[in-house]
């Protein structure tokens, strides 16, 4: 029998960055908010003994249990999708703070071009520049409109950085200064400038100095321990929801956090969301939580899946290109780059921080002429020193045997004589890339798993080859004795880690026929249901998504407050 609880103002599904921001902003204004998190509660002290590469980086301590729920995958509709049984391409978080706990902290803003990508591409190159099957669209919001919210996110998180000379205009500087430079970062900066590019210190959620944010949260500076990605931060120096926004919500007395609460359905009647139904995974009790407003703030896949399971919105149909739920799934092109081997230089590659690095965006967005190129958009070109831990890293020149005497000699020789320049490229949506419910495989509650249909296209292959050559030019200028360059981008492979930068499925726009939510993240089909996260991105940029996601979350919080006061579709 389902247990029904008293109604609250707002129920939030998933308490990571999106859910934490929503809870913080709404509770400060007096709304009663329940946050449902299917994983366990976490605190900074849980990470005091976290420097265990085997446990966290390779055995995935902080991630979703794939034996209970996973996604299925296929490259195209002609083949059967199979479940992802072990982690590879991306890492889905689990527990309080979500993926915001185990991220590296790289906190960029998307470019002005991103938000008006279709109109700006057509204006500059004509309609024929966009392939028929490429389903890019403007976001229904401009960079200038979103900029104050991204600034608010950066001030909350204490982002350390310096201005991107080729980025959008800023209303204010970063709240803390850039991180320290290592010798390899200085080498990259010098080489990039000699080639007439515009390098800058990457924006970092790893604090460069002690910081007190506008909510009164104080945090210590980064220790450069190199245990960021796949790890929680025991110092609280890396901004995550657990040490920033969630404590603010809890302090108001208006926020109730319920962990081990796995939401299975959004309840609705007469075109309105009425609450959610979830399982208390500690007791298997089924519980109904009524609410005036429902906010989905789970991961990309879970936001999309919950809407499909709940029968909300029109499922996307790839054969006709109609429908919106599941549309425009995109990933990121993170495989193009160059690895340099140095015979007479040694580096302390074991040290660093998740967002310690340099980047230039001369080939990102539409910052360069694409007239004679077979792709649009581009990539940020970067060198990061995030720390090379011993199990996962063994850099040897291409052509070295993978066993035996020469393998061992080169493994030792180049252990601290290798640098990598990477191109993190944008990914454009295509009509045949989408998310839907798998007709065969189910989770441990009997609900269909989410199915992903995706592959790299000629757009991504051409982009990757172009960027690999640009990376090689910089590496040559840095003086590498031997350089291995990516030759060709192969088919998308879900077993190889690339990035946890999945986007789309519940996309944003200004037309209910081609998008699921408006620019306040409010559902067109259900005005008291908001869906917040990278699921709303109509395409993926050449940047990490969190800074843009954070801005959209703050804007959504503003929209929810407006809706709570006046109701209706927000303009």
From TrEMBL:
It holds the Pfam family GMC_oxred_N. The keyword Oxidoreductase applies. Residues 141-330 form the Glucose-methanol-choline oxidoreductase N-terminal domain. GO terms for molecular function: flavin adenine dinucleotide binding; oxidoreductase activity, acting on CH-OH group of donors. Keywords: FAD, Flavoprotein, Oxidoreductase. InterPro entries: FAD/NAD-bd_sf, GMC_OxRdtase_N, GMC_OxRtase_C. The keyword Flavoprotein applies. Residues 435-550 form the Glucose-methanol-choline oxidoreductase C-terminal domain. It comes from the Bacteria. Belongs to the GMC oxidoreductase family. This is GMC family oxidoreductase. It comes from Pullulanibacillus pueri.
């Amino acid at each position: 029998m389902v247990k029904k609880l008293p109604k609250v103002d707002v129920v939030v599904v998933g308490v990571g960055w999106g859910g934490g921001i929503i809870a913080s902003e709404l509770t400060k204004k007096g709304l009663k908010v329940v946050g449902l998190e299917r994983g366990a509660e976490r605190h900074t002290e849980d990470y005091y003994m976290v420097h265990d590469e085997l446990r966290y980086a390779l055995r995935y301590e902080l991630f979703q249990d794939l034996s209970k729920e996973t996604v299925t995958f296929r490259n195209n509709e002609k083949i059967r999708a199979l479940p992802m049984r072990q982690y590879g391409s991306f890492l889905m978080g689990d527990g309080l703070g979500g993926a915001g706990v185990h991220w590296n902290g790289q906190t960029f803003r998307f470019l002005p071009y991103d938000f008006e990508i279709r109109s700006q591409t057509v204006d500059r190159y004509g309609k024929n520049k966009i392939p028929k099957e490429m389903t890019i669209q403007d976001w229904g919001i401009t960079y200038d409109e979103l900029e104050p919210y991204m600034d608010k996110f950066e001030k909350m998180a204490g982002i350390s950085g310096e201005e991107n000379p080729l980025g959008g205009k800023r209303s204010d500087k970063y709240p803390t200064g850039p991180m320290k430079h290592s010798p390899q970062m200085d080498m990259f900066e010098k080489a990039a400038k000699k080639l007439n590019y515009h390098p800058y210190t990457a924006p970092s959620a790893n604090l460069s100095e002690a910081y007190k944010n506008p909510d009164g949260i104080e945090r210590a500076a980064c220790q450069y321990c190199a245990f960021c990605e796949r790890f929680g931060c025991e110092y609280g120096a890396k901004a995550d929801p657990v040490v920033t926004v969630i404590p603010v919500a809890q302090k108001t007395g208006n926020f109730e956090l319920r962990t081990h609460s796995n939401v299975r359905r959004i309840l609705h009647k007469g075109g309105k969301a009425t609450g959610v139904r979830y399982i208390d995974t500690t007791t298997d009790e089924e519980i109904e939580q009524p609410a005036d407003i429902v906010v989905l703030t789970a991961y990309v896949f879970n936001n999309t899946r919950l809407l499909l399971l709940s029968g909300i919105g029109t499922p996307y149909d790839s054969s006709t290109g109609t429908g919106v739920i599941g549309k425009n799934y995109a990933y990121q092109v993170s495989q193009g780059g160059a690895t340099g081997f140095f015979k007479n230089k040694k580096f302390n590659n074991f040290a660093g921080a998740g967002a310690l690095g340099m980047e230039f965006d001369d080939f990102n967005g539409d910052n360069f002429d694409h007239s004679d190129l077979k792709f649009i958009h581009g990539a940020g070109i970067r060198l990061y020193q995030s720390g090379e831990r011993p199990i996962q890293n063994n850099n040897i020149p291409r052509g070295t045997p993978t066993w035996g005497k020469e393998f061992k000699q080169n493994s030792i020789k180049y252990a601290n004589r290798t640098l990598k320049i990477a191109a993190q490229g944008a990914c454009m949506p295509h009509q045949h890339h989408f998310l839907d419910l798998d007709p065969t495989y189910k989770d441990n509650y009997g609900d269909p798993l989410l199915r992903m249909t995706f592959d790299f296209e000629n757009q991504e292959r051409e982009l990757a080859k172009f960027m690999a050559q640009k990376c090689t030019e910089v590496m040559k200028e840095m003086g590498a004795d031997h350089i291995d360059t990516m030759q060709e981008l192969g088919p998308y492979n879900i077993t190889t880690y690339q990035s946890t930068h999945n986007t789309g499925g519940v996309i944003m726009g200004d037309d209910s026929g081609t998008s699921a939510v408006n620019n306040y993240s409010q559902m067109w089909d259900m005005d008291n249901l908001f869906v917040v996260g990278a699921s709303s991105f109509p395409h993926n940029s050449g940047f990490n998504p969190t800074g843009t996601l954070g801005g959209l979350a703050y804007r959504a919080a503003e929209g929810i407050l407006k809706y709570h006061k006046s109701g209706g579709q927000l303009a």
